[in-house]
User: Fold this.
Amino acid sequence: MTTLRQRRVGRGTEAAEDQPSEETNVKPDGKILSDHTGGKLWTIISITVGGIVAISLGLLTSVYVATLHENDLWFSNIKEVEREISFRTECGLYYSYYKQMIQAASIQQGLHGLVYDNKTESVRTINILERMNVYQEVFLSILYRILPIQQYLEPVYFYIYTLFGLQAVYVIALYVTSWLLSGTWLSGLLAACWYITNRVDTTRVEFTIPLRENWALPFFAVQIAAITYLLRTHLQPVQERLTLMVIFIATFLFSLTWQFNQFMMLIQALALFVLDCLDMLPTAKVMWLYIIQISGLLLVCVLQFFNSMILGSLLISFNASVLIARAIQKNLKKGGLLNRLGKLILHVLLVLCLTLGINKFIKKILNLESDEHIFKFLKAKFGFGATRDFDANLYLCEEAFGLLPLNTFSRLSDTLLFYVYIFVLFLMAVAAVIVAFRNLSGSNQVQLMKKMEECTITLKPDAAYSLVHTVLFGCLALSTMRMKYLWTSHMCVFASFGLCSTEVWKLVLKCVHLYTSQRAQMIKYSIPIITLLYISYKFWPGIMDELSELREFYDPDTVELMNWIKSNTPNTAVFAGSMQLLAGVKLCTGRTLTNHPHYEDKNLRERTKQIYQIYAKRSPDDVHGILRSFGTDYVILEDSICYERRHSRGCRLRDLLDVANGHIMDGLGDNEPDLKPSLYPRFCEEIKKNLPSYTMHFTRVFQNKTFHVYKLAKHK
Assistant:
């Protein structure tokens, strides 16, 4: 098991502010610039300073996470095998393809090895570029080969520095989004500071570097920034076309780098759908965004050799259904309140039926079952019946796929982020309800218009999108902890925008009858500055302490295992074991695997369940037959799984296997009435007794405190 220990001494050597809240230009000190030249100069200075601050904060964030990574692992001083072991689970699998491309005799041979791969899954040849989102590894490896940097920079550093560099893009995109929403770069500064001080809940890049989301989320943030700009009014046609191009590129890159892209963009499409139905966004722009989502995903589908999971995604079915429904219902936004509500209900039902129908038709035509485990997991998670399905329970028992822990909110509250977020969310939600009602009622009465004036100003299209976006992704984060990083980063943007927004403070002050233009401007700048000073005072010492704390990577058992495999087994040997460990085996040794952590394939899921019978109550003959059917030469057993204590009873891997096999679970506690005792003891425990029924099939060839490796007999 990997641990981090203290090091031993002596080892080794403002976007353009073209959306002002008032007709005149206002300086932070409240003075009005009546002179046109002076106002223009102030705008140029503001944009220049804001841009410099954005780039500086982005670069500082990259250096910050890179330093944390180095300090935690002493990455520059450990051996190559230790560096590779530090890429845990699926991270190691993805990085192995980068290493494979680097070590290939040529780029062409490297690509051929990925398209016709027979080492990732034994007795099968699979197309890695189709099955997995690894184009970023391919691109980076080619870039490393053609650039004259091999003598100065190791491949692993080129890889991790690229990921840390993307954090700069991420922070700059969040900064720009907040700036566009509020009209002041001070908002962007606050958003970036909140992102950094809430690092535990906004990113995990420093310890899961190759994870797909660390590649994808910076591009998603760029896309959101571009959408925010697109939803501004009075854009020139050239500006609009360029913005749409940026959105398409960002959407494409986001889709290319993460297998869960379709689910994230489905939530985004739902946000656009809700706002369009409530007449809070320009319909033409929304239609363009639907088309861009479909186009980006289809282009990725082509690059992934027509991956059927993409073609059968709910996103494509939903967006196509909306476009068809809008073509059928052309007068959706005309009429009175009841008339509009009736049309909307029909519209929603039509879109829902079309989506389910199109999706079912596509999946039936393609015989698609790659994503069924996700829907089984969701069905069980939200209480639509208990399940004994091994794959669904595997997800349900993982903390990352559980509910968002309550201590998350206490950490976010320490930086004042959560308090500000709730305050802004409440105001914006109230405004949204009022504006939506006014839009649906279709009333043009002067009195009503005056009454709603401040709400209309508060909820511009870009702010309305940001509101629904944060609500939907908040629901996702609350239900699934792993997805919190999509919400918390946007939480920083949304809270800072509200705190620096003239419209928000104008609404608050008018409600308490204290509104003046000067007072709103003063609060708009003073409150964020006070917040920044508080954050700096409270968290700067902690950040400095964190940067000065030095640890080192320490996992001698795994290092010993990998070195033994490289030295004592043939290059063609096939290994079976847990999918997390096998990803490391492939990366460190290049040996062939029976299974791996990339779970988006039905055959692989069934194979993994079979391989995991090594931890179930099965006979040695059964286990040997199963392993040999996948060409296994060696099997690795882990005490941490066989005698697992991390999960409670019912969620241990051995319990999931027992229930799936119809056997009662170990230990005290209830069992379902139809479960029966197994005829055989647990394989991973009994094999260590060296009984004849086991030794005739398995010979122990390696062991340490954590791992036991057995060689399989090859019976005729």
About this structure: The mean pLDDT is 89. The chain has 34 helices and nine strands. Residues 36-73 form the longest helix (38 residues). The chain has two domains: 162-548, 556-712.
